[in-house]
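Hey,
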Amino acid sequence: MDHAALQSLFGDRDFGFSMHVTPADPKEFFQPSPQAERILAERVRWLRSDGERHLQAAPDVDRFIDGARDFFAGIGNQESRSDAQTMIDLLAEVGRTWEPDVLIVAPNAEGDFILLAGCVCFPSGWSLEEKIGLPVHEIHGVVPGLNAAIGTRISNFLARLKPRSAWARSNWGISSTAELNQHPARGVNVLRADTSPGSIWLRLEHQLLARLPGSDAVLFAIRLQNIPLVEIGESRALRAGLRRALATMPDAVAAYKNLAAVRPALLAWLSDD
């Protein structure tokens, strides 16, 4: 467990939406984890069994295919460079080859970034097929208070992202299961008032943002990490930080994050010495 990374999420501060980013290396972000074989097998299984749910591309996204091929050749090797001619074929290859989920957004004529393509095998309670073609600010609009807090900063960051640079940030949620694929149609994340903290997981989304070579499109990648909540409870500092975040989280945000019912029990458990 990376205490330093978790402390950056659960410091001594109230809950709030943050656009905090740090410089990142795409090669390092995409490098295989010790669980790569199991994760890739699961990705292949979902793509085969329910490909339309996890793989989507808008018709006009193929204009970014050269930049996307260059990006993935750069983090792999030129010898394995894809010869895919469409973005959906390329993302199908990416989904079988790399552990993170991948999305591609690009600005329209008005400067609004639009979600144009994605391979998302492990969503955290959202549907790619419902979001494809929508502006990023509209996708974020369902999260209470997010656009008001950091919506403008997100738009400005995407517009100003420089070529050959990449940035990372992390997000967190709480889940009743370590299942990677939490598409809402599966209904696997059920948190009730009597859900035991011993069966709860902290679900981290480690995110990477990088401009595709030779274009204004931006690649957004997500790598998941599940940590048993009891491990967080072993650290006094992390326990206090998570408790403060939960205690100060607006009710509307707690409801959106599926935490309203379980929050009182979590707060009591995190208070125990």
